[in-house]
């Protein structure tokens, strides 16, 4: 610790103990007790306690917040900009470097640098916009402490508007749109729906009345966690068979009869058409959906299309977890074709190529070198399709 203990313990009057306070917090980070740190620095124990916890208001005397602790020395990469990063930004801005150049030098996103200069810059002498790194660091440190007062709790008019519309059983999304319509030129009256949900669900905030949570359309008084897989609602009512359980012959493309299915949806979801691609030959069959892509319509169209195939070409069907396959078990029972599904958010798995095999062409009229297309075509022609 580069700090010289002052030899004279006489009161310093109104002199600010800036260096003593920095050394005090350094000792506290090292595990030294409050009493020992105050003894080393020659300050009163109550002073150290006041630096750490602040003071409560008493009578006519206002309370004081805890002292701003000096930032700990950097120990590795950080998601937040540090003082050294801000000094580099200020130097490069004076050299007229672009935001993208500065971002590349710091290994950050250009939006991070742009947002930093916009939020922490200031007017210099009331005319020129400038970026001062040490002032920017202080502003960032002041915004960082949590918890922060919520926007709804600080604005009684906003709180009353939200509570009134919640009692009318409006959804938070509708309330947010109504706020922007009713107060187009008042940003302090604009919130997103997640802000309303947190004001209802997060304990200790007290921004909205707790009983208003029952007015939500879900009827839940607490938020239902869905981060873990076992906490999520199943995609379909009937259990799925995942792609990992598909037969090995489907993966190596050696045997025809294994199909990959998907939907092609037009602009604005106006119409859709289904596709069935045979994995070995890349033979394409189109599934007509003139009446929409509801689960029952997709089931009936798939059953009608697959029913024209011979038995040895109806081995399996692989699909992503689209909502249109909600009746997959009924399709399997009617067409006698097992359906396998990709993992969540992994639709590419149903077209996954096996390692070590020649890759088929993306064109549906072409075939991989190791399988000839006329084998499947002869089978389809003999079946009258």
Provide the fold topology.
Layout: H1 18-29, H2 34-41, H3 45-53, H4 83-94, H5 99-106, H6 110-120, E1 122-124, E2 128-130, H7 133-143, H8 151-154, H9 156-167, H10 172-182, H11 193-201, H12 248-251, E3 258-265, E4 272-278, E5 284-287, H13 295-306, E6 316-319, H14 328-335, E7 339-341, H15 373-382
Parallel strand pairs: 3-6, 6-7
Antiparallel strand pairs: 1-2, 3-4, 4-5
Q: Can you describe this structure in just a few lines?
A:
With 385 residues, the protein is of the alpha/beta class. The chain has helices at residues 18-29, 34-41, 45-53, 83-94, 99-106, 110-120, 133-143, 151-154, 156-167, 172-182, 193-201, 248-251, 295-306, 328-335, 373-382, and strands at residues 122-124, 128-130, 258-265, 272-278, 284-287, 316-319, 339-341.
Keywords for this entry:
385 residues, alpha/beta, 5-stranded mixed β-sheet, two-stranded antiparallel ribbon, 15 helices, 7 strands, elongated
Can you put this structure into words, describing what you see?
The protein is an alpha/beta fold and 385 residues long. 37% of the residues lie in helices and 8% in strands. The chain contains 15 helices and 7 strands. It has helices at 18-29, 34-41, 45-53, 83-94, 99-106, 110-120, 133-143, 151-154, 156-167, 172-182, 193-201, 248-251, 295-306, 328-335, 373-382; strands at residues 122-124, 128-130, 258-265, 272-278, 284-287, 316-319, 339-341. Strands 5-4-3-6-7 form a 5-stranded mixed sheet. Strands 1-2 form a two-stranded antiparallel sheet. Helix 1 packs antiparallel against helix 2 (34-41) and helix 5 (99-106) crosses helix 6. The model is unreliable at 353-373 (pLDDT under 50).
